[in-house]
């Protein structure tokens, strides 16, 4: 690409590709379909968020009972009572039970309906942005995977390879099959450069400070985001994530809640910035 065609970084933010969602005109049946589908997938994400980290942390621990994404059946975490099918209906079961287990009356964590509701809203936004198309379905996968990664990292400081690699490869394959609006060359360049940028930053920090400053999961997550949004979105995405992460870190430090090692999960800030760039079309204007 000739130097003369490179984006001018001195342009005001409004000229760097900031656009509002397309808000495609869609019918109410499609909106209802995506909203309900989001609730169902959100229910599965709750299982994924709870069990996948435990599966990773306990993979070498001997056990006689199977523990995976489908076994044991969904149950109350307090009384271990297996839930019946009416209790598995996303969001509505929480409302009908008034936020308590009907067997032991213990409170149900707000995380469960919140993730279902967020997923439903994200799926609906995908429909508004892309219409009833294959691109909308791809965007739903992107949203679900990114939400799960952000939540898992926030709770456990883990970014499972199962999800980061799925995000990366689905983004690349979708680009190759024209199921996303990112050309394959830009998708590949975004994945490679996304990993390389954070690897270089992590290496410099480790040499300077003598300790690891960023986990491998963050590198893989940015590579996945680069595959979905291309080369020219990496800089604004990383800037948004860095600034928001820095503000959070300063606030936590002032409140005395940052911890002795000064670490906090960076994945949620990459994910939030990824959502902003994806849905608002934030890029460097190329």
Key descriptive features of the protein:
mainly alpha, 9 helices
Your description of this structure?
The chain has 286 residues and is mainly α. The protein has one domain (3-14, 27-280). 59% of the residues lie in helices and 0% in strands. The chain is built from nine helices and no strands. The chain has helices at residues 28-57, 92-96, 111-130, 134-156, 161-176, 184-209, 216-229, 234-254, 267-280. α1 (28-57) packs parallel to α4 (134-156), α4 (134-156) packs antiparallel against α9 (267-280) and α5 packs antiparallel against α6 (184-209). It starts with 27 loop residues before the first helix and ends in a 6-residue tail after the last helix. Mean pLDDT is 84; it is low at 6-16.
Let me know the number of strands: 0
Secondary-structure content class? mainly alpha
- End-to-end gap: 11 Å
Portion of residues in beta strands equals: under 5%
Order of helices and strands: HHHHHHHHH
Radius of gyration: 21 Å
Tertiary shape: globular
Short structural description:
The chain has helices spanning 28-57, 92-96, 111-130, 134-156, 161-176, 184-209, 216-229, 234-254, 267-280. The protein has 286 residues and is mostly helical.
Q: In terms of topology, how is this protein built?
A:
Blueprint: H1 28-57, H2 92-96, H3 111-130, H4 134-156, H5 161-176, H6 184-209, H7 216-229, H8 234-254, H9 267-280
Helix pairs in contact: 1-3, 1-4, 3-4, 4-5, 4-9, 5-6, 5-7, 6-7, 7-9, 8-9
């Amino acid at each position: 690409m000739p130097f003369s065609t490179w984006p001018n970084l001195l342009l005001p933010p409004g000229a760097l590709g900031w656009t509002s969602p397309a808000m495609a005109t869609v019918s109410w049946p499609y909106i209802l379909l995506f909203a309900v589908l989001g609730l169902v997938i959100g229910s599965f994400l709750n299982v994924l968020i709870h069990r996948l980290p435990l599966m990773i942390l306990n993979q070498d621990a001997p056990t006689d009972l199977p523990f995976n994404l489908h076994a044991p059946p969904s149950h109350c975490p307090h009384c271990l009572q297996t839930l019946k099918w009416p209790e598995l209906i996303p969001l509505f079961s929480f409302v009908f039970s008034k936020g308590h287990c009907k067997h032991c009356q213990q409170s149900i964590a707000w995380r469960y309906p919140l993730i279902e509701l967020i997923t439903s809203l994200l799926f609906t936004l995908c429909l508004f942005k892309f219409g009833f198309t294959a691109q909308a379905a791809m965007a739903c996968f992107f949203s679900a995977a990114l939400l799960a990664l952000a939540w898992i990292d926030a709770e456990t400081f883990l970014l499972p390879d199962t999800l980061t690699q799925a995000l990366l490869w689905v983004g690349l394959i979708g680009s190759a099959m024209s199921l996303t609006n990112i050309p394959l060359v830009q998708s590949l360049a975004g994945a490679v450069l996304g990993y390389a940028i954070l690897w270089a930053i992590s290496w410099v920090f480790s040499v300077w400070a003598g300790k690891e400053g960023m986990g491998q999961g963050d590198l893989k997550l940015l590579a996945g985001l680069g595959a979905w949004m291309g080369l020219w979105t990496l800089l604004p995405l990383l800037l948004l994530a860095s600034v928001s992460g820095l503000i959070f870190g300063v606030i936590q430090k002032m409140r005395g809640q940052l911890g002795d090692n000064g670490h906090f999960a960076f994945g949620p800030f990459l994910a939030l910035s990824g959502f902003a760039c994806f849905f608002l079309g934030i890029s460097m204007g190329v």
